[in-house]
Amino acid sequence: MADHIGVRMCTFFLLFFFVTPNQCMQCHFGCTCFAATNTVRCDSKDLRAVPLSIPGYARTLIVTGNNIPQIGPDSFPELENVTNICLSNNRITELGSHTFSSMVSLRSLDLSGNPLALIHPEALSIPGGPLLELNLSRALYNSTSLTDLTTAMRWGGLAGLVLLDLSGNRLALLAPAAFSRLPSLRHLLLPHNSLASVRSGAFAGPRRLELLDLSHNAFRAFPAEALGELGRLGKARVRLGGNPYLCSCESRRFAAWLDSSAAPRVEDAEDVRCASPRELRDAPLSGVGARAVGCGVPVRGVPAGEASLQTSYALLGLVLGFVGMVSVLVLYLNRKGMKRWVAETREACRDALAGYHYRYEIDTDPRRGPPSDGDGDITLIGTGGSMRCVYSLCGPARRDSHNPT
Q: Which part of the chain is the LRRCT domain (predicted)?
């Protein structure tokens, strides 16, 4: 009995001295460790780097509100057991290459609230691709960051990613096939950005998308191309509320799409409301009819856009016809004055042409000689063997020595 108790005590001490130090490392100064929930929190401690002394039992690591300019592969050594990590609001500007490569069990990564200016192409690369959730809300510093993220998503081996949050990043445009390497994506969150259009192929790639959030962006309308792209989402739920929609003739197609059974289910249809014109502000877009938006009733067999274009051409023709009639009426009432003006113009043209003809005859007279170097323009004209000098500038005539008076 004593031998059995001695063996058990020996085993206990061996486990305590050799196993416990590795699995129950002392909590880092400034952090709080919760062994019961396998959680370590380091909140607002003005840390300059991610703590290295993380207990081995930790499954969730929360480091927020600090001042950590950059993180790399050296920031997370021996954290292969961590499944959830939150690094929000740490002023992180750079993600180094293979930053999370040692975290082979990582399932959820939160980088929200960081001004990420540089994301290396392989920053999100983890062997085995275990990552399921990626939160990058309010995390992209500028458009270059979006380009870096697109490259990182293509090279990072994120084929198993299920949730991607890109809300609040001032995104103005989605590149075609930006999510093509995320075939397992089910939740794509893009609210509170500046998106104004959806291009063809923008959501190509995810085959099992369940939720697409486009609420609170800058959409004013959804043309046929955008509706076709949304229609390819199948039975996915879509959020479109909070956008400044313009309720006009072109909105009728979108309103019909909202009510059609072929469209994805719009979860916040009651929030899809008109922002302009003023008389329709805050009115549900799905209930806006043709007359409410100032459009004529569409002609049967003619699309609404073509009918509107034909109406514009008709109005232009009426305006031009009216202007032509007024011009003809003005000319008729002033016909006497027009005749007098034409006669005066004709006489003036005759006088001008006669003057030009007279000057031409004088300039081409063969009897004119070259001008002299005297005070005036003198021309010598010979008549019957005698010479007579005259001023060509209508001066008085003089006799020369050969023809005295």
A: 243-296
Distance CA 98, CA 89 (A): 21
Q: The tokens of 148 are what?
A: 């870096």
- The verdict on residue 394 lying in a domain is yes
pLDDT one-digit tens code per residue, 271-313: 999 998 888 899 888 877 555 555 655 444 445 455 566 778 8
Average pLDDT, the chain: 81
For residue 347, pLDDT beyond 50: yes
- Boundaries of domain holding 400: 369-405
Give the dihedral sign, CA 25/29/35/40.
negative
The structure tokens 């019957």 sit at: 384
Q: What is the pLDDT of residues 122-138, one digit of tens each?
A: 999 999 999 999 999 99
Hey, which residues does 380 pair with through a beta bridge? 389
For residues 280 and 31, give the distance between their C-alpha atoms in angstroms, rounded to a whole number.
55
Whether residue 378 sits in one domain with residue 233: no
Reference 255, options 273, 229, 275; nearest CA is 273
